[in-house]
Batch of 2 targets.
Target 1
Amino acid sequence: MKISLAPLQGYTDWVFRQAYEKCIGGVDEFYTPFLVLPNSGEVRTSHKREVEPFLERNNRLVPQFLAGSIEEFQFFETYFSELGYKKMNWNLGCPFPMVTRKNKGSGLLPYPERIKEILETGYSGKIDLSIKMRLGLEDKSEIFPVLDAIKDFNVDEIIIHPRIGKQMYKGSADWDCFEQIQKSFDKTIAFNGDIETLEDYHSLMSRFPDLKHVMIGRGILKDYWLPAKIKGIDVPSANERKLALRKMHDEIFSTYSSFLSGDTQILQKVKPFWEYFSSQFENERKVYKGIKKSGGLKKYHEAVSFAFLQNVKE
Ligand SMILES: Cc1cc2nc3c(=O)[nH]c(=O)nc-3n(C[C@H](O)[C@H](O)[C@H](O)COP(=O)(O)O)c2cc1C
C-alpha cells in the first residue's frame, strides 16, 4: 500500500515536507501544492522553491500543476522534465472560484473535450502523468464523460477525491460514486478524502480491498503517526513523539528563519502551521489560541513552550 501526503496549499510546502521526512517519516510519496504559470511566463520564486531544492534530497516528490490550456500543460511538462522529475500531477480538483472561473482545477471538469484536446496536443509523454480530480464542478455525473475522454491516453493514475467542486469541503466523500468509477474505469485509481483515523482507513479498505494507493491530507496533519499506524510500524512512545514534534517544529522554524526576513514574515508562516500542529497536543484549543494571539517572536516562543508542556495525544 502506498500512502501519500496530499498537497495542501499553505500547509504542506517544501519546508513542511522536508521536516516531516526528517523527523517523522512513513509517507511514501509527497505532492507539491499546485504550481501556476503567471502571465509573465516566469514561475514564481516561491513555486520554484517547491520543486527545485527538495528534489536533491527526495526522489519521491511529485510536482503538481494547474493548467487550463495546451500551452500551460506543455510548459509544465517541459519544466518538470528538465528538472529531472519522472512524474507530474495535473490538478483537476481545485474548487476555489478564483481558479474554477478560469476553467482550471475542477472548473475544467465540465469540458471533457477540452481535457482531451489538452492531452492530445499538449502531453508528449516525456514524464508519467497522474491526474487528481473531484467528481465534477456542479454535479457528480460530470466525471464519467471526463473518464471517457482520458481513457485512451497514457495516464498513469487517477486520484479521486469524491466530492464536487461546489461542495468545497462540506458533506462527506461519496464512496458510492467512487465504487461506480472503480467498476467502470480500468486504469489505476487512488482514493483521497477524509481518512483521518486507522478506523477510517480500515473501513475504506474493507469496502475497496483492491486499492493500492491512498492519499491523505488533513488526517496526517492532525496525526503525524497515521501512516505508521496504517503500515503497522511501531508508534514511538509519548515521550519520543513529543521529542520528534519538538524537532519538527524547530526544524520548520529554523528553515523559515533562514530565508525569510523579519519576525512578521516568519510568524506569517509558522502560525498557520500550528492550525494543524496543535492537534497533536492535549488542550489543543488553548495551545493554538496562545500561538495565534502571539504578537511577536518572544510571545510566540512562550506559547510554544506552553504547548510542549502539554501531553501529546495517542
Ligand atoms: C487548505 C487546503 C489547501 C489545498 N491545496 C491543494 C492543492 O494545492 N492541490 C490539490 O490537489 N489539492 C489541494 N487541497 C485538497 C487536498 O489535497 C485533499 O484533496 C483534500 O483535503 C481531501 O483530502 P483529506 O481529507 O485527506 O485532507 C487542499 C485542501 C485544503 C484544505
Note: The radius of gyration is 20 Å.
Target 2
Amino acid sequence: MTDLDEYGRTARAWLEEHAGDLPREPGLAAAKAFMAALYDAGYSGITWPAEYGGQGLSAAEERAFQEAAREVTLPVGVFGIGLGMCGPTLLSIGTEEQKRRYVRPLLRGEEIWCQMFSEPGAGSDVASLQTRAVRDGDVWVVNGQKVWTTGARQADFGLLIARTDPDVPKHQGITMFVVDMHDPGVTVRPLRDMTGGAHFNEIFLDDVRIAADHVVGEVNGGWAAAVTTLLHERVSIGMGAARTERPASFAVLARAARARGLLDDPAVRDQLVDLYLRERAFDLFSARLSQEVKAGVEPGARGSIAKLLLAELTLAGPDVASEVLGTEAVAYDAEREAGGEAGDADGGRIAAALSFAPGMALGGGTNEIMRNIIGDRVLGLPREPQVDRTVPFRDLKVGTQAKEAGR
Ligand SMILES: Cc1cc2nc3c(=O)[nH]c(=O)nc-3n(C[C@H](O)[C@H](O)[C@H](O)COP(=O)(O)OP(=O)(O)OC[C@H]3O[C@@H](n4cnc5c(N)ncnc54)[C@H](O)[C@@H]3O)c2cc1C
C-alpha cells in the first residue's frame, strides 16, 4: 500500500466516523464544529500553504481526500464563499498580515466570509457600482448598498468592492476591502427567494470606517482584484457542484420513468438522453479543470465554461423531472419539512431543485455573461463594444446617477 493509499484510507475512516450521521443541513454551530474537527484532522486547506494554516500538501493528497469524500455530503456550504473565493483571493493578492490574520480561522470555520460585489444598479456590469469609499486620515469611510449577498447574515467578514475615484473610467477607480460584518454601520437584511429560504441578503453600509491596511490589492486596483475573485468563484462553483448530489439526475429520473412505464415514450427518452449528455459533459469538463487546478495550471476564463455547463444542467434536470413526474415534481410541503416531520423527501428535493435552478443561471455571472466571456477570452472572438470604457465614472448615466440626470 502506497503512502497515498494509506492517506485515502485514513481519510475515509475519519469521514465515516465524523460525517456519516450528520443531518443534510446541520445548524450553524454543528457546521462550525464539523469544520473545526475537519481542520484539526488535517483535511481543510489540504493544498493551502502551511505558513498560513493550510496543510501544504500536494494535489495528490487533495484528490485522495476528494475521492474518500465522494459518498458523503459534507456540511461545508456556509463556508463555501470563504473557501472558494475570499480565501484564494487573499492568498493571491492579500498582504502578509492579511494572510496571517484571516486564512487559518477561515479554514477552521471559526470565521465565515461573504462577497459584496453586486448592487441594485450594478450586477452584470458590476464595474458601474456606486458604493463610495472616501479616505479620511488612516481610514476609509464607506457608504452605499449591496444586494444578493449570499450568507451575509452568518458572515464575520466580507470582501467589498467600492468606488474610490469617480474621476477616472469605471474600471479604474474601484478598491477592494476587508469589511468587519459586525461593524455598527453594516445592516444586513434577508431577502426571501423562491425556494422559500433566504440565502441572500441586502446590505446597507452607513459610514463604515475601514482601516487603510484592510485594502486588498492596490488602491484603485479593485477591478483586477474582483476579477481574481470571480475567476476563483466560477471554478469553485463548477468544481464544488461536481461533488454535490443531484436530486434531479439522469439516474433518478430514468428509474422514475421506468417505474411509470414512460421509457418507450420517444419524447421522454429524448429528454433523458439530453440530460445524460449534459451530465457527462459537465462531469468530464470539471474533472479536467479540477486536475489542472490541482496541478497548478490556471484555468483562467475557462472556469466560465464549467459555470455555464453547470447552469444549463441545473435547469435541464428539473425540466425533465417535470415531464417524468408531472405534479409530483412540485408536491413539496416546505412547512412540513421545516417542522422536521418526515415528508416526501425525494419529491421535496426535486421541488427544491426546481425552484433553485434559475438562481444558478444568475449567481456568479449570468449565462449570457458567461457566453460573452467565453467568446472574448476563450475563443478569441471580437470583444463586445464598450462605449463607456474611457468615460470618467462621474459622467456616466448609471444607477442613481441616471435618475439624478433626469433620465
Ligand atoms: C443565487 C445567487 C447568489 C448570489 N450571490 C451573490 C453574492 O454572494 N455576492 C454578490 O455580490 N452577488 C451575488 N449574486 C448576484 C449576481 O452576481 C447577479 O445577480 C448577477 O451578476 C446578475 O446581475 P443582475 O441580477 O443585476 O442582473 P442584470 O445585470 O440586470 O441582468 C439582467 C439580464 O440582462 C442580461 N445582460 C446584462 N448584461 C448583458 C450583456 N452585456 N450581454 C448580454 N446580456 C446581458 C443578463 O444576462 C440578465 O439576463 C447572486 C445571485 C444569485 C441568483
Note: The first helix runs from residue 3 to 19.
